[in-house]
């Protein structure tokens, strides 16, 4: 369903963008419409076949075609947004009929410039963002405990072994007491995931390395990615809790987005928190939903991902309609919620305006 909607959306934006481009003086006179629309058809094909090959094949060629197609999708989005903004300014050409075609050319330039910035930003390594959180019930001897959280690595055809090794080096530099992975470790296609197991198995911390599943862990209707995560020695929390040290409970739930798409009912949050001992509780949830419910259940800190912070501005405004907790820190009924904007990227290696991030959370007693 998601793939069909995505292909339809990209097709419609192709038609609109090239229709408007054909009226720009720079292209209208020297470039015949047949050639212009032919270029559009080729670029649309790069996206379509990149998605098909990326999800059904592996290897350098499939990875290149997917990368090109996904990059073009990101550029097309920014070009279309720029064109639509100019349409609003000119009243779709009604207010400035003579200047409107030239202004559309300016919009194309702006969209292209934004694409360059997004590509540069997307290729940058993620930054480490620091947070200090006061937790009620945290034992005094655990004051200063450092948690490193990474989310949405999306390892696969675009992000592979070398990129992962660089991220693990960043994690080790922080000397964490506890490492948590907030879902979507694997894209679900592309590089053979078992090639990354030796790298993942080198991830360690005194209080352990823990993970919760994201929606991509069930890509293609199976849990192969989840099995590989467990094989690497990472402990997975699905609707359960563990006391990592006396007075500090770590709880994790299944992905709420995947549950909704599959039509599953139930109350995984209550199950994940039931029967836990007294002390401070940290909840790991890939999707940043049910924060109010978690706060009312006595959770002191909730860590999430999934949203990518919108990844490419201004897409975040649309994402916020379904995910009000988009990125950063929120205080909800006495609970702190932190949403990671993603350590990796989904689709194009593009970000606008913020780079990816790794969360560094230092715990302190609330008293």
What does this 3D model show about the protein?
It contains 12 helices and 12 strands. With 367 residues, it is an alpha/beta fold. The strands form 2 sheets. Strands 1-12-2-3-4-5 form a 6-stranded mixed beta sheet, with helices on one face. The chain has a 6-stranded mixed beta sheet with strand order 6-7-8-9-11-10. The longest helix is centred in the first third of the chain and has 31 residues, at 60-90. The protein is elongated. The N and C termini lie far apart (49 Å). The relative contact order is 0.14. The model has no long low-confidence stretch (mean pLDDT 90).
Concise structural overview:
This protein has 367 residues and is an alpha/beta fold. 41% of the residues lie in helices and 17% in strands. Helix 3 crosses helix 4 (60-90) and helix 4 (60-90) crosses helix 5.
Low-confidence stretches: none
- Name of the CATH first level of the largest domain: Alpha Beta
Which word captures the global form?
A: elongated
Radius of gyration: 23 Å
User: What fraction of the residues are assigned to beta strands by DSSP?
Assistant: 15-25%
How would you spell out the order of helices and strands?
Answer: HHHHHEEHEHEHEEEHHEHEHEEE
- Helix/strand-derived class? alpha/beta
**Overall number of domains:** 2
List the helices and strands and how they pair.
Layout: H1 2-21, H2 25-28, H3 33-56, H4 60-90, H5 100-123, E1 127-135, E2 146-150, H6 161-173, E3 178-181, H7 197-200, E4 209-211, H8 224-231, E5 235-236, E6 240-245, E7 248-252, H9 256-262, H10 268-273, E8 280-284, H11 291-296, E9 301-304, H12 315-319, E10 328-332, E11 335-339, E12 357-365
Parallel strand pairs: 1-12, 2-3, 3-4, 4-5, 7-8, 8-9, 9-11
Antiparallel strand pairs: 2-12, 6-7, 10-11
Helix pairs in contact: 1-3, 1-4, 3-4, 4-5
């Amino acid at each position: 369903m998601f793939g069909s909607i995505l292909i339809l959306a990209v097709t419609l934006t192709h038609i609109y963008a090239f229709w408007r481009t054909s009226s720009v003086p720079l292209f209208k006179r020297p470039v015949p419409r047949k050639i212009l629309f032919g270029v559009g058809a080729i670029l649309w094909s790069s996206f379509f076949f990149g998605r098909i090959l990326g999800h059904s094949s592996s290897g350098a060629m499939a990875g290149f075609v997917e990368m090109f197609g996904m990059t073009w999708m990101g550029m097309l989005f920014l070009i279309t947004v720029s064109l639509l903004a100019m349409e609003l300014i000119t009243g779709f050409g009604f207010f400035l009929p003579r200047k409107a075609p030239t202004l559309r050319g300016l919009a194309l330039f702006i969209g292209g410039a934004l694409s360059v910035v997004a590509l540069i930003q997307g290729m940058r390594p993620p930054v480490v963002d620091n947070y200090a959180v006061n937790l009620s019930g945290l034992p005094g001897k655990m004051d200063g405990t450092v948690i490193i959280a990474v989310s949405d690595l999306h390892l696969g055809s675009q992000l592979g072994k070398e990129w992962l090794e660089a991220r693990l080096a960043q994690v080790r530099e922080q000397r964490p007491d506890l490492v948590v992975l907030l879902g979507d470790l694997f894209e679900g296609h592309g590089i053979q995931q078992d090639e990354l197991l030796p790298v993942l198995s080198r991830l360690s911390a005194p209080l352990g390395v823990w993970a919760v599943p994201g929606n991509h862990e069930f890509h293609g209707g199976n849990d192969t990615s989840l099995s590989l995560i467990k094989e690497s020695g990472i402990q997975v929390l699905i609707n359960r809790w563990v006391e990592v040290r006396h007075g500090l409970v770590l709880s994790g739930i299944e992905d709420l987005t995947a549950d909704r798409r599959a039509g599953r009912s139930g109350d995984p949050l209550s199950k994940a928190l039931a029967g836990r001992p007294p002390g401070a509780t940290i909840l790991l949830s890939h999707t940043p939903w049910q924060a109010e419910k978690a706060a009312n259940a006595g959770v002191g800190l909730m860590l999430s991902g999934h949203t990518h912070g919108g990844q490419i501005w201004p897409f975040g405004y649309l994402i916020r309609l379904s995910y009000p907790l988009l990125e950063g820190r929120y205080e909800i009924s006495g609970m702190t919620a932190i949403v990671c904007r993603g350590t990796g990227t989904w689709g194009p290696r593009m970000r606008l305006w913020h780079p990816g991030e790794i969360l560094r959370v230092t715990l302190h007693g609330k008293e």
